[in-house]
Amino acid sequence: MIAIWALVCYMTAIIVWNAVLKRNIGESLLVGFVVTGLFAGGDIGHVMWQGFAEAMQEEVTFAALAFVFMSYLLSRTPVLDQLLNILNSLLGRLRGGPVYTSTVAAGIFGAIAHVGAAVTAAVGSVTIPWMKRSKVSGELAATVAAGGAGMGVTFPFSSTMFILMGSAGVAALVSKDDIVLPLFMGGLWCLGYRLLAAFWMIRRHRIQPMDRADLLPLRASLGAGWTSLFLFAGMIVPLLLTRGPTGGELGRYVGVVMSDAISLITWIPVLLIAIVLFLGRRQLPRAGRGWWRLLEGAAPQFGVIGVTIVAAFSASNVLGELGLPQQLTDVLTQLHAPKWAMTLIVGLIVVAVAIPLTASATMAAIGPVAVSSLAEAGVPAATACVAVLIFASTEGASPPSGAPIYVASGIAGVNPARTFAPLVGYYCLPILLIGAAVATGVLPV
Description:
This protein has helices at residues 2-20, 25-38, 44-56, 59-75, 79-91, 97-113, 116-133, 138-147, 159-165, 168-171, 176-204, 218-225, 233-242, 244-254, 258-261, 264-279, 288-298, 303-321, 324-333, 339-354, 359-376, 381-392, 403-412, 420-439. The protein is mainly alpha-helical. The chain has 24 helices and no strands. The chain is globular and about 65 Å long. Helix 22 runs antiparallel to helix 24. 73% of the residues lie in helices and 0% in strands.
């Protein structure tokens, strides 16, 4: 069980280094990475280098840094201010309007795109600055955006769902068609909870409507900044190319699966940067020296975010190399407990695995044995699948390794560690309990 102990020591090292010794989260995750490497023994050099090399090739690493740069470019142009003026004209009079909008938008986008980091990046690039302008703290804005990432897993038809249903063990218990409606209902339970959490946060933090003096009439804001609406093209175009009827027709025409050929998490930030460069061209430098100064100003933005996400992914890869998924699977197969206890045990194990891994990797690693364990405890097979997917959906809100945390923190310009406690309290633990309530029949699906 060396990998399980490595996971425990990894989490302990980060907590001690960050919370007790008050060091920054980037340094803390580097320490955690070294601690996991020590469990490789004499193979430490190879394992740590391999984990680092794989982390540097992660799409999310590129996407997180690309969104940091995109946010920096937006701050140097009037494009985002123009878009926020339009949104405020529409919803600024509502108390906590941007928080509700971010939550609902994450649900809608998640039901289409299903990639947690892409959901946070696409929705957060607009709603995080909007929330901050509405006097929501950067930490809370990043928390709300990252907390919505998991809805991509709790609505059909995500790749995570197909990975789970494609396993022989699960396919023998239930068909794909049998879980579509239950999973949709499970997704609605998760969305409904997030709206309640948004309501509570708005009241607790006393978020008020925008001052009427800061609100422009819709006609005036549209007249001044209608071109800023082209930012949404950076999100819509990749979706149209990869999903739905247009993606299907295009895929048949060119002979490839468009969702495999075009990565949302890569191309959304690339298109957004291109659109910002075009729309803000009059305010951006025209000479090489001016661009060099602009890039120098962007460099500090990449410090903690870049180190943190690379260290988190590197440690995740080391844990995988040490055999964490298989060892946790072995633990699950040995458990025998009443339904309510088995539900909580399975939920905690799936959530623990989803901390260093993505939801898809979690399902590939222990999804089938988690479903069969719940089924043996008396949970209907379709319901067990929904519950396990809900448990795995916490990967976006599970510190310290959830990629959406660093995407959202980069956009908000805040220390990711400041979001850890609220993410666990507002999203991770409640979603775990929702999954348990679904499995035990308290919440019907």
